[in-house]
Specification:
The complex is a heterodimer of chains A (270) and B (343).
Chain A (H helix, E strand, L loop, with lengths): L5 E5 L2 E3 L7 E4 L2 E4 L7 E3 L1 H16 L4 E8 L1 H11 L6 E6 L8 H13 L9 E6 L10 H8 L5 E10 L5 E7 L3 E7 L4 E5 L11 H16 L2 E2 L7 E7 L8 E3 L4 H13 L2
Parallel strand pairs in A: 1-6, 1-8, 6-7, 7-13, 8-12, 9-12
Antiparallel strand pairs in A: 2-5, 3-4, 9-10, 10-11
Helix pairs in contact in A: 2-5, 3-4
Chain B lengths: L3 E6 L9 H17 L3 E7 L3 H7 L5 E6 L8 H15 L3 E5 L2 H13 L3 E10 L5 E6 L4 E7 L4 E5 L16 E3 L9 E7 L14 E5 L14 H15 L2 E4 L1 H5 L26 E7 L5 H4 L5 E8 L13 E4 L2 H17 L1
Parallel strand pairs in B: 1-2, 1-4, 2-3, 3-9, 4-8, 5-8, 11-12, 11-13, 13-14, 14-15
Antiparallel strand pairs in B: 5-6, 6-7
Classes of the chains: A alpha/beta (270), B alpha/beta (343).
Amino acid sequence: MANVVHILVCAGIVPDPLQTLEPITGPNGPGLKNEMVLPAVLDPWAASALYEAASLAAKNPGSKVWLVSLGPKAKLQQVMMTVAQKVGFELVPIDGPIGGFPDAHSTAAALADAINAIPGLDKAKLLLFGGWESATRGAGVTLQLTGELLGITDQFQGVDQIDLRDDGSYEVLERVEGGKHQVSVCAGTPAVLGWATGNLAEPRNNPQVGMANMRTIMPALQKAKPATLAANGLRYVSVALPKQQRTTRVVKDLTPDQIAAELVEWIGAE
Amino acid sequence: MENLLVLTHVDETGSALTKASLEAVTAGRELAARLGAPLTIGIVAADAAAAAGVLASTGARLLAVSGEAFAQPRYTSDAAACEALCRAAAATIVLAPGSSRFARVAAGVAHRLGGFIDTHITAVGGTEAVEATRWFYRQRVEAVLSRDARPWFLLLDAGTHAAFSGEPAAASVEQIAVELPPLRTIVTGIHAPKQDAQTIRPDAKILLVAGAGWTKKQADGQIHAEEAGALILGFLRAASASLGSSKSLVDQRGEDQPVLPFLTHLNQIGQTGATPRHAKGLSTCCHGEEPHVVGWRFIADRRAISLDPNCGWTRGKADVVYIADAFQVMAKVNALLSAGAAK
């Protein structure tokens, strides 16, 4: 018997990983140079959460997936043109600042407010998904804080797998130290799951899914509520690129035997 | 005046403090000494007696939440335990290891106490105020930050402080009572690869980084994935090394391309993977592009084997780059290491 679940995926947008980043300090605090024009993608771990959510919803008819995302409206629209072609979801956009430097507590509050305002969301059936860390702030706290604000006290982080059972309980695999997974069984929803990579490959683009999604995404973006993120006493003393540049010795003229001997000596040295 | 609390927990044995917890104790002692602030250490364990004994020589006030419910790392019980310890200590600054156990609950605890949290802290400094150093954008931008609001939770990255070591002695521990809500989650076990199949070894001295080149066509126009797997596993065994991988190599599993069967996403380092800390790192068959390189930012001594003498990402990131065929070199390395072990 299938279980109906309401899956909310919290996912930010981040600069494409191949972009060179340069921090700058502006009137509102630190940011990235040309941040608004850097190509952006959906946060990688949160994207895994979205694909897992879609897969779980497909296996449990009647279930629904929402994607809650905070960022500048124009940037969200740009990223959604691609993301919308992957899997079906309803977008809940929040028009707010981009980047990793705003305070996570304020971000969580904005997300919780938006989630609380979603019509038809049954919080008793809620699975709050997201990446266990973002590729911007990378703190791994926003999802937990959002869960606490929503009163959810079963939380899992570094999740690679969820198996929903007929009785509504589910087994979760969470990453723990040493390349292992902790296995837990939870009695039922609601719960928070911060995803690592999961087990699904990135879905291929499907223009039909894209067209269906865009019918609701564009009106949602037009109605996106603005959010101002308070600093909560967070003060940046310095923000800089790592300065350490190594003087690389390029070895071109050694045979494999000679290289191996040098490496073995290096490996054995204290 | 600040009031410091270090939160600690035991490992899977149920009695010994984790190395990361002992590192947090060192950080707490250093910060308390610098601020002239009182130090409290909180322990979460089924039975905290042995752990408390190890901490006796710190001279800190010791608090513990104990009982069978706290043997399992799970959100509901751990959050309640940490919240009770923080309230009992009336802490203004809370240091804790960034372990999977505390990373799961610390943000929630900070919220319950009306406090704030910053994680992945690599250094705690400052003269006038407490300042914490951490990375943003997956180890690509480094920032120093401070907060006026209290309590302030700081989750410390593993390997950033020496582990505390003291002579075990009898310790006076204050037990803190916790009223638990109904527990809906049960930890049923740990999935771990078999001992000889484990390729992730956080305590290894050397990290081998395998790139996608291992499963690409070689000089003879053929793919040698099986040979690549044997060479990599042979090196891990001979050098007691840990294995990291680039995202592209791990992703091949889902793309019907040749794969190394022992690689999983848990091996992935870099932009969407782990950032392991090891004394040495050897990168092989990697393009070395930035998202991958950030994964070994915390590797002290780095060498690489690459066929591309002009790889711009390797230069300035590695200490030594050997321009050679990794298949040939690693076969020789394994032979030498095996011969050395046989002597």
